[in-house]
Design goal:
The protein contains eleven helices and twelve strands. It starts with 12 loop residues before the first helix and ends in a 13-residue tail after the last helix. The chain has a single domain (about 1-325), classed as Sulfite Oxidase, Chain A, domain 2 (Alpha-Beta Complex). The protein has helices at about 15-30, 35-50, 55-75, 80-85, 100-105, 130-135, 160-170, 190-195, 210-215, 265-270, 320, and strands at about 115-120, 125-130, 140-145, 150-160, 175-180, 205-210, 220-225, 230, 240, 255-260, 295-300, 310. The radius of gyration is 21 Å and the shape is globular.
C-alpha cells in the first residue's frame, strides 16, 4: 500500500521538521568531514583564482576534487536499496537469521491492530490500525540505521515523532521512562513458539527509553519506508526508530507504550547485561565483546565506487542533536 504524504502546501508544523531534518543532514555531513573537505578544496582554488592563474593541472585537480566530493557526499547519504532493507532483517520473532523474517512473515496480519498508550499520563488512549497513519502528519526521514553487529543502512522512513503521540496522552510528573512492547502472538510469530528459531529470547520483545530521549525530535514512530507501508519483516504496522542508538532499541510491531516512573527491563539487556546496556548509544570507543564498534560495514548495492567500510561516528552522527542528553554521564559505564 502506498502512503500519501501531504505536499508542501498542506504542511504546517512539520515544515519546521523538514528544516530541522535538512540541518541534521548538513551537520551529519559536517561530522563526516564532507562539508569541511569541500570548503578546504574550494578555498585553495579560490586563492589560486585570486592570484589569477590556473594551470591544466589545477583544472584536473578541480575536476577530481569535485568528483571526490560528489562521490563521498553521495556515499554518505545514499539510500540503501529497498530490496536490501526488506530482505536483510533482524526480527527474531520470525527467525534469528537475516533472511528468515522476510521469508516467514508474509502471512502476518496487521488488521485489526491495537496500540495502547498508558501508565503515568492523564489521557491514556488506544489507537487502531487506521489511526496509525491518519492521526498525525506523516513525514519522510532519511536516517542511518546502525546495528550492534557493525553493519549499517540508510533508510527513508515514513512516520511521525514519538513526541507528538506522547504529548496527546499528557505524561504526568511520574513519567520518567517509556516502555515499549512487541505483539506476543506465537501463532503468527513462529520464533515465539519455537525457542530455537526465535534465538532463545524471552518474548514479548521489550524496549525502553528515558522520557527526554523519547521526546527528542529525532525519535520517530515509523509506519512505512520507501513511500509504502512497512513490510512485516521491518516491523509492520508500527515500530520505533531511534537513529543515534544501536538498532536493537528500535523495537518493531508495537502494541503497548507505557509511561513509567522506574527504568523498564529491556530484552537484550536481560539476555546478556554485560553485552547490551539500556542506553545502547552508538559509541565507536566502546566495543561489544564480539564486534569492534570502531567501524561499520555499509550495506549497499555494491556498486564499483561504493566504500563499504566506514568509521563509526559517536551517536551514529547525530551527536549535535543528542549529546546534551548525556552530559556528565560516563558512557562507557552506561553503554
Ligand atoms: N524488534 C523486535 N520486536 N524483534 C527483534 O528481533 N530486532 C532489532 C530491532 N527491532 C528486533 C526488533 C534489531 S537487533 C535491529 S538491528 C533492528 O530491529 C533491525 O531493523 P530492520 O530489520 O528493519 O533493519
Amino acid at each position: 500500500m502506498l502512503i500519501k504524504i501531504p505536499n508542501k502546501s498542506h504542511l504546517n508544523d512539520s515544515d519546521v521538521t523538514q528544516e530541522s531534518v535538512y540541518q541534521e543532514r548538513r551537520s551529519l555531513l559536517k561530522q563526516l568531514g564532507f562539508l569541511g573537505a569541500g570548503a578546504l578544496i574550494s578555498s585553495a582554488l579560490a586563492n589560486k583564482a585570486k592570484a589569477g592563474f590556473f594551470s591544466d593541472d589545477d583544472v584536473s585537480f578541480k575536476t577530481q576534487a569535485l568528483e571526490y566530493q560528489t562521490d563521498t557526499l553521495n556515499q554518505a547519504l545514499i539510500k540503501t536499496p529497498e530490496q536490501k532493507i526488506i530482505s536483510h532483517n533482524n526480527f527474531y520473532e520470525f527467525g534469528a537469521k537475516k533472511d528468515q523474517p522476510a521469508a516467514l512473515s508474509q502471512g502476518f496480519q496487521v488488521k485489526p491492530w491495537q496500540l495502547t498508550i498508558s501508565g503515568a499520563c492523564d489521557n491514556p488512549m488506544t489507537l487502531d490500525y487506521d489511526d496509525l497513519t491518519k492521526l498525525f502528519p506523516l513525514e519522510e526521514r532519511i536516517y542511518r540505521l546502525r546495528c550492534v553487529e557493525a553493519w549499517s543502512m540508510v533508510i527513508p522512513w515514513i512516520g511521525f515523532p514519538l513526541a507528538s503521540l506522547l504529548k496527546r496522552v499528557m505524561p504526568n510528573s511520574k513519567a520518567n521512562y517509556v516502555a515499549f512492547e512487541t505483539l506476543h502472538d506465537p501463532e503468527q510469530m513462529p520464533g515465539q513458539a519455537n525457542s530455537r528459531l526465535g534465538g532463545g529470547i524471552q518474548y514479548p520483545y521489550v524496549e525502553g527509553l528515558r522520557i527526554d530521549e523519547a521526546m527528542n525530535p529525532l525519535t520517530l514512530m515509523s509506519v512505512g519506508l520507501y513511500g509504502k507501508t512497512l513490510p512485516p519483516q521491518n516491523g509492520a504496522p508500527i515500530r520505533l526508530v531511534v537513529p543515534w542508538k544501536y538498532g536493537f532499541k528500535s523495537i518493531k510491531s508495537i502494541v503497548s507504550i507505557k509511561l513509567l516512573e522506574q527504568q523498564p527491563p529491556t530484552t537484550w539487556n536481560k539476555l546478556a547485561p554485560n553485552e547490551y546496556g539500556f542506553y545502547a548509544n552508538v559509541n565507536p570507543k566502546h566495543d561489544h565483546p564480539r564486534w569492534s564498534q570502531a567501524s561499520e560495514r555499509r550495506i549497499t548495492s555494491g556498486g564499483l565506487f561504493s566504500r563499504n567500510r566506514i568509521e563509526t561516528l559517536p551517536f551514529n552522527g547525530y551527536g549535535e542533536q543528542v549529546a546534551d542528553l548525556y552530559k556528565g554521564m560516563n558512557l562507557s559505564r552506561h553503554y
